[in-house]
Specification:
L-citrulline binds at residues 89, 125, 129, 177, 186, 262, 274. This protein has 13 helices and 14 strands. By secondary structure, the protein is an alpha/beta fold.
Length: 400
């Protein structure tokens, strides 16, 4: 079934993406498969992954360190947008997909490939994110998804790979499906498929159980420059180091766990467990700083923009025209969102306990009830009369 001559395959080293290599060549007539593994800060050693791709039949095996791009070009924009899908999930996995798609397309163009491929099944969100993003970046490239079409069970997939020298894991496979990167971990499957079952403690890696967290609170100060986190406790940090250190600090206090029933784009509900300590704290701190530096009308209007933005990222529309327009609006709102937010980390909670900014709109002389009060209380009566006039007219007409 010849669909393409040269293919760049998104590669993780797992069973599905490894089997994709011989499957593309022997079943679909692809002449050459180049694999690309993205280093998103998942912590895995990627040299064995690179070597496994070559042993599985790849002509070239590429590894791209994109941790810095991931944070600066994707995560930071989501923080500025206070992006929480269904008001809970900070999009750690969803944000990685448009970046992987981008480097796939870049590699395809560099190596003269006529298609890109991935190992997504037909049930998840990632297939949509890859397919739509790649089509937006280069609509001339073909998109191949063997695992969506081959119809093999897990056992049959492993057996197919063994025919071509791809060994299956010797150790007992974890019942969980886990995706991880610098921004967090997502865990599903196994006993988690029953939404009534409490997640076993063994599934967590980035966050401590509350019983094991410190008995004293830890205070941290996060500095923002135009909506982007730049300092931690007064020290300038590069983007990757800032996320890593905040993951460790918040996770040590049991902060960052999410257990939710999520509405997938394909129409099904799934039970998802996430660990995302740094992103949850950063979005909470950023939103609080906005409350100090943005006018009321921008703050209220931006909430609707944030909801649309979040849905677009989740639904794989990162490279769409509307997303670009929303980006422009959000960037404009961030011009004055600079300052420092003090956060208390303790027993699973990140509590904002202070905030300062040179651009603060908080005016103590107007807010105080003390002797320094500069607010003209007499002006309130006229304001209330004009403000309530439509309501009074409506009430009078109703009674008459």
């Amino acid at each position: 079934m010849g669909r393409a001559k040269k293919v760049v395959l998104a590669y993780s080293g797992g069973v599905d993406t490894s089997v994709c290599i011989p499957y593309l060549m022997h079943e679909w007539g692809v002449e050459e498969v180049i694999t690309l593994a993205a280093d998103l800060g998942q912590g895995d050693e990627l040299e064995p992954v690179r070597e496994k791709a070559l042993k599985s039949g790849a002509s070239e095996s590429l590894v791209a360190d994109v941790k810095d791009r991931f944070v600066k070009d994707y995560a930071f924009g989501a923080i500025q947008a206070n992006a929480l899908y269904e008001n809970r999930y900070p999009l750690g996995t969803a944000l990685a997909r448009p970046l992987i798609a981008k480097i796939l397309v870049e590699a395809a163009e560099k190596y003269g490939a006529d298609a890109i491929a991935h190992g997504c099944t037909g049930k998840g969100n990632d297939q949509v994110r890859f397919d739509v993003s790649c089509a937006a970046l280069n609509p001339n490239l073909k998109i191949l998804a063997p695992a969506r079409e081959w119809g093999m069970s897990r056992e049959e997939t492993i057996a197919y790979g063994e025919r071509f020298g791809i060994s299956s894991p010797v150790k007992k496979k974890s019942p969980y499906s886990i995706d991880k990167n610098l921004l967090g971990r997502s865990i599903e499957a196994g006993v988690l498929e029953d939404p009534a079952v409490e997640p076993p403690e063994e599934i967590y890696q980035m966050t401590k159980a509350i019983a094991n967290t410190p008995n004293e609170p830890e205070y941290i100060e996060i500095g923002f420059t135009q909506g982007i986190p730049t300092t931690l406790n007064g020290e300038a940090k590069n983007p990757v180091a800032l996320i890593e250190q905040l993951n460790n600090a918040a996770g040590n206090h049991g902060i960052g766990r999410i257990d939710m029933i999520e509405n997938r784009l394909v129409g099904i509900k799934s039970r998802e467990i996430y660990e995302s300590p740094a992103m949850l704290v950063l979005i909470q701190a950023h939103r609080d700083l906005e409350s100090l530096t943005l006018t009321a009308d921008i703050t209220h209007y931006k909430r609707g923009i944030e909801e649309t933005y979040t849905q677009m990222v989740y639904n794989g529309l990162w490279y769409s025209p509307l997303k670009a327009a929303l980006d422009a609006f959000i960037q404009k709102t961030q011009e004055r969102v600079s300052g420092t937010v003090r956060v208390k980390l303790f027993k699973g909670n990140a509590t904002i306990v202070g905030r300062t900014s040179e651009n603060t709109l908080y005016t103590p002389d107007l807010a105080t009830y003390g002797a320094e009060d500069q607010f003209d209380h007499k002006a309130a009566e006229g304001f209330i009369y004009v403000w309530g006039l439509p309501t009074r007219i409506w009430a009078q007409r109703g009674k008459s």
